[in-house]
Amino acid sequence: MRIDIITCLPRLLESPFSDSILKRAQLKGLVTVAIHDLREYSQNKHRTTDDYAFGGGAGMVMMIEPIDLCISKLKSERNYDEVMYMSPDGELFSQSLSNQLSLKQNLIILCGHYKGVDERVREHLVTREISIGNYVLSGGELAAAVVSDSIIRLIPGVLSDETSALTDSFQDGMIAPPVYTRPAEYKGWKVPEVLLSGHEAKIEQWREEKALERTKERRPDLAKE
Ligand code: ADE
User: Is the CB of residue 86 below 6 angstroms from any atom belonging to ligand 1?
Assistant: First the structure.
């Protein structure tokens, strides 16, 4: 898989992809993440990528031309499955959407800033708009990192334990059960006996019960009967 992220603040995206699972996924050749600085596509001498809004009002608007030039260049190099724009008014991101996107080959993510992008970008260049939640961030970069992280960890081979993405919360519409590690007792707080029993079937049954109990208690909207 390849993810191309278009941003006017590339430094904001450096660290999420230079550590841990996302770094290893790239080193293993399972994903390529390319960050594109929108300023390099600016056609004016100050390398600006935003301008005042027609009709007035506070806040700058990201111009269509640098965005179009960047997307066109990428599209001349390969075919893309989606051009996704990160925006608080987009479709709410979910595990199910992440699963779908993890099956794609090439994705473009465009990060918005200021008052957003010229509406013609959304009308003509973007195929999908995604929000990571009902709150407003300063820009789409953190949202792009969240969406990319969620997608990349689902690519086969990215996680060392192949089953661990499958046991994530939400993956089966349930919250994950509690986990414990050594010591078995700390300040008198004990680990549930069954987990120390070595009895695999009983442990599995306990995990399923706890997952269901937690889901009903914390996320009744997810709980299935
Ligand atoms: N940009 C600003 N806020 C955002 C959000 N909640 N989701 C995605 N992109 C955003």
Answer: yes
CA of 1 to the centre of ligand 1 (A): 23
pLDDT digits (tens, 9 = 90+) for 99-140: 999 999 999 999 998 789 999 999 999 999 999 999 999 999
- In this structure, is residue 67 part of a structural domain? yes
Condensed to tens digits (0 to 9), the pLDDT of residues 4-63 reads: 999 999 999 999 999 999 999 999 999 999 999 999 999 999 999 999 999 999 899 999
The parent domain of residue 37 ranges over 2-152
For ligand 1, the distance from its centroid to the CA atom of residue 158, given in whole angstroms, is 26
**pTM over cut 0.85:** yes
For atom 10 of ligand 1, the residue with the nearest CA is: 87
Structure tokens given for 168: 């994530």
DSSP state of 117: B
From 87, 111, 141, mutation site for ligand 1 pocket: most ligand atoms within 8 A of C-beta: 87
Assess whether 137 and 48 both reside in one domain: yes
144 and 186 in a single domain? The answer is no
With residues binned 3-state (H G I as helix, E B as strand, rest as coil), the percentages for the chain, rounded to 5, are: 35, 20, 45
Identify whether residues 105 and 197 lie together within a single domain: no
